[in-house]
Amino acid sequence: MEFAVETWGETPIVYVRRTGPYGPENKQTMERLKEWAKKRGLLEGNAVLFGIPQDDPRTTAPEACRYDACIATDLVLEQDETDPLQSGIFEGGTYAVFRIAHTAEGVRQAWNEILPALQAGGCEIANKPTVERYAEKLLREDWCELCVPIRI
User: Fold this and answer.
1) Is residue 80's pLDDT more than 80?
2) For an engineered disulfide with 1, which of 77, 113, 149, 152 has Cβ 3.0 to 4.6 Å away?
3) In this model, does residue 81 exceed pLDDT 80?
4) Cβ(19)–Cβ(66) under 8 Å?
5) Domain spans in the chain, listed from the N-terminal domain onward
């Protein structure tokens, strides 16, 4: 499986966090963010969305797992603890970027091939969350990207 190595700098984001077991609710969280962003014209042009599962479900109780649906934007929200939308900074880093089919089967197949591909490429997984990256142009063609944090 082919991948590209990208290094990302800090990126300002707006995000919605959901806490609970990973699953279909993550998609609902992303849809909520997209609805908010669409109303503000943020999904036009080169919009980039991120899905970030913050916790390892093998070591974190399902009810404590955090999933952030994010959009890259310079828009800064007034911080209000009652508002599920928050401003933040995605810290960036070095990632192995895999383009995959935006389907459940595509994701399953990718995870079966990612670790061997990284090992063959001399990459070691860094201790950071994997990022799902959704660029508008890729989504129109039913693709997305799995971005695995690495040390080279």
Assistant:
1) no
2) 113
3) no
4) yes
5) 4-151
